[in-house]
Amino acid sequence: MNIITDISEMQKVADSFRLQGRRIGFVPTMGFLHEGHLSLIRHARQMFDIVVVSIFVNPIQFGPSEDFDRYPRDEDGDLAKCKAGGVDIVFLPDAKEMYSTQDAVTVSVERISDIMEGAIRPGHYRGVATVVAKLFHIVKPHAAFFGQKDYQQCIIIKRLVKGLNIDVDIVIRPTVREADGLAMSSRNAYLNEKERRAATVIFRALSSAEHLIKSGVKDMEHVRSRIQATLQEEKGLNIDYIQIVDPDTLMPLQSMVNNLVILVAVRLGNTRLIDNVHIWP
Amino acid sequence: MNIITDISEMQKVADSFRLQGRRIGFVPTMGFLHEGHLSLIRHARQMFDIVVVSIFVNPIQFGPSEDFDRYPRDEDGDLAKCKAGGVDIVFLPDAKEMYSTQDAVTVSVERISDIMEGAIRPGHYRGVATVVAKLFHIVKPHAAFFGQKDYQQCIIIKRLVKGLNIDVDIVIRPTVREADGLAMSSRNAYLNEKERRAATVIFRALSSAEHLIKSGVKDMEHVRSRIQATLQEEKGLNIDYIQIVDPDTLMPLQSMVNNLVILVAVRLGNTRLIDNVHIWP
Fold first, then answer.
1. Looking at residues A197-218, what average pLDDT do you find?
2. What pLDDT was estimated at residue A152?
3. pLDDT at B103 over 80
4. Which of A37, A106, A149, B32 keeps 20 to 30 A from B40, CA to CA?
5. Is the distance from CB of A25 to CB of A86 less than 8 angstroms?
């Protein structure tokens, strides 16, 4: 496994793989790798000649009062996991080299960046779209892998590559969950024991909503109320939003049309958690 | 010479050239090709295995009251000139395919997009940066060629590729001029006979400023006044700006440091003309 920190070296290595006709699969991460990331790596390993993982806690996607400084980091552990997962290259850029120019260049995906997570975290998705565009230009992958846990991010990245004609396939993989249903997330490390137990309510609420819909309930306002009631059983949990939306446009749905996504964001103490479920009739 | 209109076909053709190790030089244009474009094409032809020219009047870089509809077009003439210039591929995209997504994706180069041309034409450089990023993702060139006549645009595109780590060399070539000094521009076609004669004052003003500086004048406010006085000799010419700036940052200079650029924008009737000169001591 090769560790590359220099941007132009990464580009040269990517060019040489491409000249040899070898196809590059890319898993961009912020590190502190968990089973969700590892499942993306395994999938990339099966499909591609070369697997590149980037580890970069991207400062520009954090708001000034957010958790950039305390975001969990474990470089040695991450490198060991990448090596065990058969990764060819870990790209570990330096924040100073990533954001060195005098005038900022930013990429914006309009409208869908301003709702849900984007409404609560202004500028977050501009930071995400910008760093993903940069990483794609540096790693030059044929495909990139993202977890469905960050559903809105997945849709924004699909819009990004379509809107700017970036020739990278976006592969979305299912959310990986703990045994009790909690979606894997690096931020789960923030939870104390009590919060960790309380967090299981999110998947229970989403699963019962899925059950309701599959058993024939059509009124999405009713479904939404049931999710809210379930979540509110946990004292100390605050709801940021519960949204039932069209899977492509992320526009709210009053009733099931073809298929839909339910997205939930809550706060437990100082920790924000998000999750979602994609439901077909 | 191959004419390609489909975005994904252009990407496939570019991929296959790159797999063969052939290097692609790219000249993006809005068509109505003049000697300025042709000198870029000749230069690309000398340096690269494959020369791609795009012809696309980019709607999103025009303001609502600007000249998008009447911008001069001559597809047959352009294709003949490309063929004569030894161009391998002309990329002729359709505006509907270029801007088909529901939510706009835009690229912004902050600060330097908001001064001079950007102050007079709000959103112009966001439109330029966005279409250039798109074209680079479609044509996949190793280098792209731009004329110095659009000096601010050149600097913005250099910032764009640096800021987003786009692996394309930006080659800036000197402004090509008519015999009487007027900078070649597709918009010169708008000028009537009287305006065309009046337009020669721009190059005279810039040349005498260069002469002043090279003869030792240090005070840039004095130089600026002299340019203004020269331009004002032409009745019916309105000055949008006269700026003496640092070549890289585009920040105003009070005195000559290493080298500088003087940029001028004027209106003659309904036609806006820009020009500039880069001066070393």
1. 96
2. 98
3. no
4. A106
5. no
Please give the C-alpha separations between residue B233 and each of A85, A275, B131, B202, B223, in angstroms, as whole numbers. Answer: 74, 68, 38, 11, 16
pLDDT value of position B102: 72
ipTM over 0.90: yes
Q: CA B126, CA B143: separation in Å to the nearest integer?
A: 21
Give me the residue spans of the domains in chain A.
2-173, 186-279
The DSSP bridge pattern shows strands A237-245 and A260-268 to be antiparallel
Question: Closest Cα to residue B7, out of B199, B139, B181?
Answer: B139
Cα–Cα distance measured from residue A113 to residue B144, given in angstroms and rounded to the nearest whole number: 31
Confidence of residue A193 (pLDDT cuts 50, 70, 90): very high
The pLDDT confidence band at residue B258, using thresholds 50, 70 and 90, is: confident
Contacts of B137 in chain A (CB under 8 A): 164-167
**Closest residue by Cα to residue A102 from B158, B213, B242, B187:** B158
- Bridge partners (DSSP) of residue A243 are A263
Q: Which CATH architecture has domain B186-279?
A: 2-Layer Sandwich (3.30)
Select B2-173's CATH number: 3.40.50.2300, 1.20.200.10, 3.40.50.620, 1.10.10.10: 3.40.50.620
Instruction: List the single residue in B159, B164, B249 with the smallest CB-CB distance to A133.
Output: B164
Residues contacting A126, CB < 8 A, separation 6+: A60, A106, A107, A108, A113
> In what order do the strands lie in the sheet containing A24-29?
A2-4, A89-91, A50-55, A24-29, A143-147, A169-173
In percent, how much of chain B has pLDDT > 70?
100
- With an 8 Å Cβ cutoff, the interface of chain A facing chain B consists of 7, 11, 15, 18-19, 21, 101-112, 129-130, 133-134, 137-138, 140, 159-160, 162-167, 249
Does residue A152 sit in helix, strand or coil?
Answer: helix
pLDDT at B281 over 90: no
pLDDT-derived band at A26 (thresholds 50, 70, 90) equals very high
Residue positions counted in chain A: 281
Cα B267 from Cα B270, distance rounded (Å): 7
What would the mean pLDDT of A62-76 be, rounded to a whole number? 95
Of B260, B26, B52, nearest in space to B146 by CA: B26
Cα Rg of chain B (Å, integer): 19
Question: Given strand B24-29, what is the order of strands in its sheet?
Answer: B2-4, B89-91, B50-55, B24-29, B143-147, B169-173
